Hints:
With about 350 residues, the chain is an alpha/beta fold. Helix content is about 20%, strand content about 30%.
Amino acid sequence: MKRREFVKSIAIGGAMISMGSALLPRPVSATPGGKIDIGACRSVKVTCISEVGWHDTGKLIAQMKAAGGPQTDQWSIQWDPDNGAGSCSLVEIEGLDGSIHRFLMDVGWNPKYMAERFAATGVDRMLRDGEIEFLFITHEHLDHLWGLETVLRLKPDITIMVPSTFHEPAFQLIEGSKFPVPGVENAVHHTGKLIKHTPGGVHPLVPGMAAATFDLPIILGIQGEQSLYANIAGKGVVCITGCCHQTILKFAGYAREHLAEGDKLYGVYGGLHIAPFGPLKPEQEEMVRAIGQFGFSKIACNHCTGLPAVEMMTTLGYPVVKGTGGSGSASDLYIGNGDSVTFT
């Protein structure tokens, strides 16, 4: 029986809707004339496990075009799994009381590659020891979701948080399925909680951090992406994202408009999806220039931001956090594989 066919039930107090093993917490919305208070934390540290989504961009684009172009459903394209790498980050939040919460944002693509990155960064041990509390999957693109089996082999009962806009194949992959055409499978059934975050407000995760789901069509037939906001006490809001298909302008603008602490934006981490496939176009250059309006103190961008966009940010004098350029990342101009940034 598919998830959507499960009988729905209302939990005590009406705060949750249950669909089988899936939970749909209701987002917190601003009061009339007010904004949402997500609380505060002492610091947030983000370690880039991998920002290399794939190895060969030309091969990726060729496979996409052969199947009908960027609007083709990703589940019907014959990908080369050996070209896959993956996007994944470890997020660590220190509360005002000194407590530490850890979770993974996304799980990459190629299982072998992700197993190597987990071993190199100690994530495999953290998963086995129960130090990582949950998985936060930003969207269902192959380089963010398809490495799920690597995590479930280490901790099959881990809580998984996804946008409610996921398509049925993504839920089937989580439950344990094989898709021969795109070349992806998960042979380990997920036995933990599955939490679906709906659009229309924010979902508090821990004190000082909340998620927001943006419902929009994305390349390769994907719908919706969820991102994170953290409020660092005394510093302001940090925007944390996987690919930011909603654009950094809408992402940061949402914080300003809807969060009580959003009038001061402290930093940003993640892929900003500006120039993921090549040189900057005029509209992409405008996007980079527009980032300056937010006054970020730290910009730790990587992955689908694109090196040309990072180079332009550096030229404009933006506070771009540099990395080491090691472990497979293409440049030291941005936070790459194995690098960390702390917002405190």
